[in-house]
């Protein structure tokens, strides 16, 4: 578990440093950046629960890679697609829908 937490914590610290360094009084953008970071950290942590549905797990991991890549591009000003950052939300919703559909 430490193999996952340590790189993720280092990535989060680097992103927070980038947000702090680029902060120029635009509180709205800084809050949006932090909220998107917290969402991606939540979605990455949610991967543990998706092991129940293996195909959904692989799809979630691929969407996480797209989400993290899009977030880094967003931070460095290369992309503005917030929908790609929120893409892991699709598999989280599908997980709960499958639980309601196939659950007891």
Task: Characterize the structure shown.
This protein is mainly α and 104 residues long. It has one domain (2-102). Helices cover 78% and strands 0% of the residues. The protein contains five helices and no strands. Helix 3 (54-75) packs antiparallel against helix 5. The longest helix has 22 residues, at 54-75. The chain is elongated. The mean pLDDT is 88.
Question: Which descriptors apply to this entry?
Answer:
104 residues; elongated; single chain; 5 helices; mainly alpha
Mean of residue pLDDT values: 88
Main sheet attributes: strand count, strand direction, barrel closure: none
**How does the overall form come out from the CA principal axes?**
elongated
* Proportion of beta-strand residues: under 5%
Over all CA atoms, what is the radius of gyration?
15 Å
The arrangement of helices and strands along the chain is HHHHH
Number of domains: 1
Structural class: mainly alpha
The end-to-end span amounts to 31 Å
Number of strands: 0
Helix content: over 70%
Give the low-pLDDT segments: none
Number of helices: 5
Give the SSE layout.
Layout: H1 2-22, H2 27-45, H3 54-75, H4 82-85, H5 88-102
Write a short abstract of this structure.
The chain is mainly alpha-helical. It is 78% helix and 0% strand. The chain contains five helices and no strands.
């Amino acid at each position: 578990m430490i193999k996952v937490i340590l790189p993720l914590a280092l990535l989060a610290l680097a992103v927070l440093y980038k947000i702090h360094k680029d902060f120029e009084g635009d509180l709205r953008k800084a809050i949006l950046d932090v909220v998107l970071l917290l969402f991606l950290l939540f979605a990455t942590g949610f991967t543990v629960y998706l092991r129940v549905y293996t195909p959904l797990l692989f799809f979630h991991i691929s969407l996480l890679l797209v989400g993290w890549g899009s977030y880094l591009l967003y931070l460095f000003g290369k992309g503005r697609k917030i929908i790609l950052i929120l893409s892991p939300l699709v598999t989280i919703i599908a997980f709960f829908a499958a639980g309601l559909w196939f659950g007891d």
